[in-house]
Specification:
binds fe (ii) ion; elongated; mainly alpha; 185 residues; 6 helices
Length: 185
């Protein structure tokens, strides 16, 4: 029956949306832990940027949740992995660059699942979010390279900078002048 085929297609899309939402929730926790950590180590500017990236991930988690609700599913709250604690500044940036790169690879696969199952709305959502994950990757990877190549000189410049982000809710990508279009926009 046509209806059964459509239900099966929808189930496949729902599955990848749950997985993506779960990855976003993990990234939020991981980056929040890191920004407290960086702030404690007095790397204020990095702490502020990692916090803004966490805010982007919150927006992504909500966008996936909105889509799941539209498809009649209750958004997951499960985390796919444990949050690592106590990472030092040298460990954080290669770890995060990897996490973003892995997310880009997986979201490209999820996007294909949406296409194969005739859900272009979910497909476009993945496409827009992948663009933002790429901005995150570029930031994490450039800091990773600076720390690796300039070592103490780079970190010395960051030490003692402010971690203030102000009373606003815009994340990292929006401050770079980009961003995923909001619903209804
Ligand atoms: Fe994200
Ligand atoms: Fe990200």
């Amino acid at each position: 029956m046509v209806q059964d085929a459509r239900t099966q297609q929808r189930e496949k899309v729902i599955e990848v949306l749950h997985r993506a939402r779960s990855m976003e929730l993990h990234a939020i926790h991981q980056y929040m832990n890191q920004h407290y950590n960086l702030d404690n180590q007095d790397y204020g500017e990095m702490a502020a940027k990692v916090k803004l990236v966490a805010i982007d991930e919150m927006r992504h988690a909500e966008l996936f949740a909105d889509r799941l609700e539209k498809l009649g599913a209750q958004p997951t709250t499960d985390l796919p992995a444990k949050v690592l604690k106590g990472q030092n500044v040298e460990a954080i940036f290669p770890f995060d660059a990897n996490l973003e790169d892995d997310t880009i690879v997986k979201y490209n696969q999820f996007l294909m699942v949406c296409r194969e199952n005739s859900d272009s709305i979910s497909m476009k959502l993945f496409e827009a979010i992948i663009d933002e994950e790429q901005v995150h990757f570029d930031y994490f990877d450039s800091v990773r390279a600076h720390i690796e190549n300039l070592d103490g000189t780079y970190l010395a410049k960051i030490a003692g900078t402010s971690s203030a982000t102000g009373l606003q809710t815009q994340g990292f990508v929006a401050r770079q002048g980009g961003g995923t279009p909001q619903r209804g926009a």
